[in-house]
Amino acid sequence: MELGPGPCALPPAAGTGSATGARSAAGGPCAEMLQVAEEAFRGGNFELAAEIYGSELAGLPQPERGLCLRRADALARAGRMAEALDAYGAAARLARLRPEELRELTESFALSIRDKELHLPPWGSGGGGTGGAESEGLGDPACCRPPELFACPLCRRLLCEPVTLHCGHTHCRRCAEPGDCGRCHRPRRPGETTSGSSPPSSAGAACPRVNVVLGNLLHKWFGAESRARRLRAEGDALRERQELPAALEKYNQALEMAPCKCSLIAQRAELCTLMKNYQQALHDADVLCRNKPHWPAGHYVKAKALSGLERTEEALKEFLYCVALNPEWSSMKKEAQKIMCEMFFPAFENVHDSLTAPFSSRTSYTRLKPAFLSSINTQSAVEDSSVAGSSKDPVFRLTKTPSQESDVFRSTDSPVSHHVLDLYFEDNKKSLGAILSSLPGVGLKRKLSSEMRDLQSLDVPNKIPKKDADILPENTTVTSNEVPTTLVDASDFECSLCMRLFYEPVTTPCGHTFCLKCLERCLDHNPHCPLCKEKLSEFLASRTYKKTILTEELIVRYLPEELSERKKVYEEEMKELSNLNKDVPIFVCTMAFPTIPCPLHVFEPRYRLMIRRCMETGTKQFGMCLADELKGFADHGCILEIRDVKFFPDGRSVVDTVGVRRFRVLSHGQRDGYNTANIEYLEDKKVIYGAKLFIPMYCWIHLNSLSLLHFKLAVH
């Protein structure tokens, strides 16, 4: 892309040679050219952006810090790290460099590591790496993840003490305590607000208890994993109470029985870091990084351990690995930026004060350790050639004379200051070159000193082995995502009331599971759990019984044939209940008539069941008859149609009905406590009033009309 002088171009000043870009009348940078540079940066043309910023800086009498930073960012994105660090150094001389200003440099290093050493595609290309939200950075690796059905929506680990919330979703007990559901984000109990506060009536309500059916299944299907998960949860609780030695003991016990140990080792390493046992933490982290090189959490715990051991350069390397694997991990970016700011530019915090101090007392970059200089990537070669990719456009060429470079990077006008600064940065540039040579795939603008070449030649093993050897303890195995068919038993999903397979399973706050219809019938008689007799008044008052989603999904996946048979039985029952000629439900109460409203107050358990079945079948109709001492109810009645039902918290209801048609009872019967009858509908004979008089009168009128017509014809 070739650009000529912009519309604000001025003739070159005397003694300055050819113009290096368009200048404003005040001698500052050209706004149009800066806009072009910003658009080039946003479009990914970092080389052009760097050249424009450099040409604008070269023409300024005094360097501008903002332009130095923007040029440094563009150079970093273009992979020209040596020049980028020079530009950052120029900005640091003008004012103290803040860690957040090194974001582009950090991301550029991370991208280089991701490409050259991790051999992963770039961020956002959809392949490899962790990526995603920051919370995913510490997620368990794939080998430690349970089957999706048995994973807690919040912690993503195997369910531990599973608790079913009011909405029907199941969580770990500790995860369910703080507030809303992790899937649907509804309150865990009816009546709660989204913030987790309860109304006065339910303020003392206890947290739902462990789901008995699911808890037994986890122990049966995932024995070792379930026990290890429980020990880990106990360790987490102890850690929250700052009982760190006891928590460590729980983690060690869990490690002895867990089939996959990666996430447990990471958690133990993090705990050792809190206990300031950095050597043990580093040992665990090394095991993780060798076994799972693409897992960000392993590099995270290693970085924390190295930071505790004050091995800052190695810690920076691990933080960069975290960013390379998960670009959205903002806390790791901040840590890397902070270390880079302190390590690369430690002497720039107050340059004017440092000029008056003895030169020998200033911090030098030679304090950087060989670990950081050589271990990020030992395969990188030192490039002595000039930086590739420079523009051929003479207007924006960055190849400058030494006098031009000093014009760009000097920050004071004093000749003494110039001399001191030149000496001050000359020593540091050598160290920066050595640092850059250790990073993968970055070009150097100058040769390394012999001392740095010796450091580079150290025999340090590669960060990532060519093969992910399994170096975890020998009993490490990978859990299967499928439950063995030999462990699946239909009796584990049997309702304790109807003794059949769960159909529309519902779990009570006390942790027991029943079929929806079975539970409703029990609550019609008594607002207590059928098994443990715990009071369920609040559960009954909600009238919104949500199915236990996990239990239903397990039945669908592992017992499809049994579920098909159970569904067929249910459909046959509904078909029988929806017949409006045979076994029609009869409400024995009063006399009803067609088209006349008949409101009812339903409180007896048998009629609660009857009304509910009428609503479920969709007929919304039942018979109304008067009582009869001999037969139970009268031989004639009226069909009522339900228009509306309003329930009270205790289960009672007010039913709004209207008469539809009359019937005659053919036979009497009973079903589940309420009366039924086989009926036939009555059809009254329709009477047309005045029909005998109407027909002769019509004929008489017609004859009179004909007579009148003949009369008129005769007259004419």
From TrEMBL:
Protein's GO biological process: protein ubiquitination
- Please give one Gene Ontology molecular function term for this protein: ubiquitin protein ligase activity
UniProt keyword list:
Metal-binding, Zinc, Zinc-finger
Task: Show the InterPro entries listed in the entry.
Answer: Lon_prtase_N (IPR003111), Lon_prtase_N_sf (IPR046336), PUA-like_sf (IPR015947), TPR-like_helical_dom_sf (IPR011990), TPR_rpt (IPR019734), Ubox_domain (IPR003613), Znf_RING (IPR001841), Znf_RING/FYVE/PHD (IPR013083)
Tell me the ranges covered by the RING-type domain, including all copies: 495-533
Q: Cite the Gene3D superfamilies for this sequence.
A: LON domain-like, Tetratricopeptide repeat domain, Zinc/RING finger domain, C3HC4 (zinc finger)
**In the UniProt record, does the keyword Glycoprotein occur?**
no
Q: Which Pfam families match?
A: LON_substr_bdg, zf-C3HC4_2
User: What's the protein here called?
Assistant: Uncharacterized protein
